[in-house]
Amino acid sequence: MATATIRELRNSFPRVRKLLDAEGEVVVTEQGAPAYLLTRYTPAGKPPVTPKDYLTRLRRHQPKPLTAAVAKALDDANRGPR
């Protein structure tokens, strides 16, 4: 675990930030004693993103296929008397 002083936070934060990126946590000391624990921010309570199944959604809105008997009856009705 990396350590940094309050003075280093104030004067050279980019170096402390690199330590934080590399280690994940940085202990900040004040007058030689550990005073704070610096960690990366992670938002809490955000629901995970689930991918959308577009093919299922498309099939739900498409008409049902015709059966062979209904298709033949429709074809015969469209032909008319011959």
> What structural class should be given to the helix and strand makeup?
alpha+beta
Main sheet: which strands, in order across?
Answer: 1-2-3
Question: How many E strands?
Answer: 3
CATH class of the domain at 2-39: Alpha Beta
Task: Assign an overall shape.
Answer: rod-shaped
What does this structure look like?
The radius of gyration is 33 Å and the shape is rod-shaped. Strand 2 and strand 3 form a beta hairpin. Strands 1-2-3 form a three-stranded mixed β-sheet. The N and C termini lie far apart (91 Å). Helices cover 45% and strands 21% of the residues. The model has no long low-confidence stretch (mean pLDDT 89). The protein has four helices and three strands; from the N terminus they run E-H-H-E-E-H-H. It has a domain at 2-39: YefM-like fold (3-Layer(aba) Sandwich). It has helices at 6-11, 13-23, 54-61, 68-79; strands at residues 2-5, 25-30, 33-39. It is an alpha+beta fold and 82 residues long.
